[in-house]
DNA sequence: CGTTTTTCCGTAAACGTTTACGAGAACACA
DNA sequence: TGTGTTCTCGTAAACGTTTACGGAAAAACG
């Protein structure tokens, strides 16, 4: 249907039009446009000139078919159960960085979200099997992630935001250092005199929850503080989850004087619960949030939090993915399979 | 490079493999898979069965080339000057709805963002001319939008989130009723006894700013209140903009007792400025925000705001776009070119 | 001037589909 | 039995590229 309009010259013309117009074969035109060496400097000029005049750009479907590459990357956003918002404020900056770097290589970004709460194997398979993308970027990585297993077995290139236990070190991944954040948070609180420190993290198989807890535990031990299971709780990764689970740790026989939340939405819910108990963060209890979002800043009291550099992370993961693709790989040795990025402490009023 | 692995049977096979395996021509296989009538029921069964076994799905590039349609829609996000965040909390829910409805039709979503502050004509042209998408959804519509002009002239299908003065009623568009929101906000404030009401909106050519101001003005006139230009101000559409411009309206000879902000980030900046002047929203001044985001809810005091139904809007715009595409059009008469959606008032503490 | 090399270009196949066309077989009908 | 219909399928072209191959012309070389 689109071809019909072709004659109007506003729409792109095909390489045949160009060749006809120049009295030249399409092969030569193609070689000229693609910078091949075996074409006369003169004719190359004429071709480029004509391409500009006729407003020609190569049809991507034709290219994809011939080259076996679509020049597009799929970004898969799999909502955690309970999270209706895809980690809303988290992903836009990351996506911005990712797509910016991809765009520099003329790669397009396809975004695949799932129905909340539903796993995306089907959508993923479709992308892979119909060859809609050349590679996949996985977000919301789980501890055991069947998407990773599938892609590994299929030999389909991919990279992940967040580590997983699946698949080993065979694919590029970029992660936030939740372990260090958990540890740093404990250090900070201990330095301020706290010894009863609670930890609240998302339930389900989210890998970062485990990393966080590792750091938390190790730091406590380092400070000679015994880990009290009553001070550790899991909940749904949303406001309701935090609201529901916070009273549980507060009900511990010896009340905690500080809480570390491993998710911003859970922290907000937790603070609501605290407020209802008449406990004021920043006064009666110290609160630290592990991943900062704009909400933490504007909440009252403003929440002390650890912040990742999301946009640079997006750029970086794009680079790592590209470096792992044969078609883009630079010098062989430069392939980096794993990076763990630190978080920056943003001290505010809640601790 | 991908083809190399084909033999391993984990990767998709081609229609030729299927035909060979069944001792049948590829034409028949294709017709069987596509539900054409002229194929024996038996053979269709065998084909479908084999397709399942061999894990066959059609290569999208091949399809696109043959059919002249890519089955993907591009979503263009053009940041407003001054907005580094692409209206961050605004777009994820919209995108969620959009992509959900598109996915139901097996359409993929390609997201194209621009460098902040840079217009995207180039990126848009590339998508259109290389035929990477079958249609485009435009966001961040401007009052005069050259993207709309371009797409109209090129005869390329598109739809917009937000109205524009460009292009007339020739394309599907879905808009938030900023005019009514501006008017409703004034009504509410007047009913609560206010008569000196300020309006702060983004500068630049953003259409919704004009609509909002129209509603604001009309409502004032309806209540017999003279419009005071000193109470209207434009600023950059970010926190700094609100911070910078709010003192200006507060410096008016007769101080306003209420402010309507046409953007959440500007409202937050404005509240900061107010706080520094010792003026408390909800006590000393009434504040209403025109587009609600999660930030408004958690801010202290919680900001009264008008909220759009972003996810349903995304779904709806997808429907409208599809209905306008020949390949998807239902009955001719059902093409809806323009819809304006109301906002819901979320009364909180700031007014 | 003859031979070899280089430069440049045209030809045609290939990527994986869909689909217009036509033909053989089976069937119906007179 | 002859004719017309209906089912079913194979053939081949087409979508727009890129690229392997070979060959003609030009240049280089002896």
Provide an overview of this structure.
2 copies of one chain form a homodimer. Chain A is of the alpha/beta class. Chain A folds into 3 domains: about 5-60, lambda repressor-like DNA-binding domains (434 Repressor (Amino-terminal Domain), Orthogonal Bundle), CATH 1.10.260; about 70-175 and about 310-340, Rossmann fold, CATH 3.40.50; about 180-305, Response regulator (Rossmann fold). Chain A is about 40% helix and about 15% strand. Chain A has helices at about 15-20, 25-35, 40-55, 60-65, 90-105, 120-130, 145-155, 180-190, 205-220, 240-250, 265-275, 295-300, 310-325; strands spanning about 70-75, 110-115, 135-140, 160, 175, 195-200, 230-235, 260, 285-290, 305, 340, 345. In chain A, strands 2-1-3-4-5-11 form a 6-stranded parallel β-sheet, sandwiched between helices. A 6-stranded mixed β-sheet of chain A has the order 7-6-8-9-10-12, with helices on both faces. In chain A, α5 packs across α13 and α6 runs parallel beside α7. Chain A is elongated. The N and C termini of chain A lie far apart (about 65 Å). The interface between A and B is large, with 60 and 60 residues. Chain B binds a DNA duplex (30 and 30 nucleotides) through α2 and α4.
